[in-house]
Amino acid sequence: MEGNRSEFGDSADSHLRDIPTVVERVSIDGLRRTKDDYAKQKHVDAILSATNFFDMVLKCVEAKMQLEKLGAFKHVGIFIDVSKGENAHPHGVEVTLEVEERKRVESSLQTSIGNNEGSMNFALRMPNLLGRGEKLSAEYSYSNRKTMDGRLSFFKPMFLNPDISWTKSVFKQSSEFPWSGYKNVERGASMQFTFPLPVLRAASHSLTLSGVWRDLRCLSRETAFAVREQAGHRMKIGLSHQLTLDTRDHPVLASDGFLIRTNVEHAGFGGDIRFDKASAELHYFQPLPLDAVLQLTLSGGSLRSLSPVSPIPDRFFLGGPMSLRGFNMCAIAPKSEGAYVGANGFWLLNAHIYTPLPFFRKSTGLSSLFRTHWFINAGSLFQPPQGGWTSGNWRNWAREGLASPRLAAGGGILFLLGGVARLELNYCWPIWLEGGDSAVHGLQFGIGISSL
User: Residue 153's closest CA among 174, 131, 126?
Assistant: First the structure.
């Protein structure tokens, strides 16, 4: 049957290629606010170069996809008609791309899910503000973990290309960290430049320059001194670069592909917070027989403080149902007076196997949203040795990083929620742990949009 379908498809494609076609006119109908030079770019003009019907259809679909990427249109339709008139070519056609522009003002009220956190989000947006893909937006969110985020941002494509853009924002964020006993309030402004590189077009790069006024407050009188000594107002001005390369076939529950994400940050262009920080993560997905999937994850990071003490909000923490399973949220030592204070370095290794539910091998209907989940993960927090990130210091790095590893294994059920989040209920067996760690011996529930 598959062979017959393939032969039929090849035969149809061959037939369409045999139909000579001359595209005499391409027009875009429905433009109101959008400028012609932003909508009528090279992907639209490319339709005129088609020489057969099959090639024309492909170029029309590509033009439709490019128009949808511009962020200016709610709907894009394709209409093809034969050329009419005395001077019409016998094989001539006319292509009309019919667009429906987005409203001048859009608003939304919705709930969203983060890693073990749910929030209510309100947004007011003015898309395609000046006719070339600009967007002004105001957003506010509040979560069940008392995290507040409010920001006003302006987005502008550069060189009429939505893949190259500037985003300027002012924001206020407030978060509580009960495992460390403090609340952090940040007010600031940022400017982000997003761009691809010709060498690796599938990767997304972003450079962000930000200035942050940070106000760290203790949650109670019992907050550890290691946290209280950092309380108060501080200023941070930093530049960061993030690279993302994603080939996964699904953003939440992939079965093939990989994801690479790196982040490098330097703080110290002004203010009293100064450090160099780098982190990276790699996710690899491999399909296995019987519809099973293997996921391997490697992540790590290091922070080098340029001040006597590194700031707690910028340190690394481990633990939780979406990172180091078998341990409570951010509950891996080091610990001071009952508070988890994080560390300047970490590493994490995870291996997962996902399989369909027993007796539902075809994974159709509701059963397709469930997977059995088996995992083993190991990781550790550590203080990087003096001397920075030099190759001659690798023995000290290895000794510190492997001094106190944690290890846990387990299995359970995973549920794909709305295609945008995953719910996990796992039974965990902590195997290696250190004094001060808060381990989970038994059931652990987690919800999130990403998983290590």
Answer: 126
Helices (H) and strands (E) in the chain — how many of each?
6, 21
**Strand order through the sheet with 22-29:** 22-29, 92-101, 73-82
**Amino acid at position 137, single letter:** S
Instruction: Give the C-alpha separation, 60 to 43, whole Å.
Output: 9
Q: Output the pTM of the full model.
A: 0.87
Assigned token pair, 204: 């997304």
Pairing of strands 370-382, 335-336: unpaired
Residue type, 324: L
DSSP classification of residue 96: E
Asked if 374 and 344 touch (Cβ cutoff 8 Å), the reply is no
Distance CA 181, CA 339 (A): 6
Q: What is the DSSP letter of 334?
A: -
Q: Are strands 335-336 and 293-305 parallel, antiparallel or unpaired?
A: unpaired
In the three-class reduction of DSSP (H, G, I as helix; E, B as strand; rest coil), residue 394 is classed as helix
What Å distances lie between residue 409 and 135, 255, 378, 416, CA to CA? 46, 21, 9, 21
* Residue 309, token pair as written in the block: 């003490």
Residue 435's Cβ-count burial label (10 Å; 0-12, 13-18, 19+) is exposed
- Spatial distance between the Cα atoms of 375 and 430, rounded to a whole number of angstroms: 12
Q: What are the strands, taking DSSP E only, across 85-181?
A: 92-101, 106-114, 117-127, 135-143, 148-158, 161-177
In angstroms, how far apart are the furthest CA atoms of the chain? 90
pLDDT tens per residue, range 182-232: 999 999 999 999 998 877 777 889 999 999 999 999 999 999 999 999 999
Task: Using the Cα atoms of residue 47, residue 48, residue 54 and residue 57 in order, give the sign of their dihedral.
Answer: positive
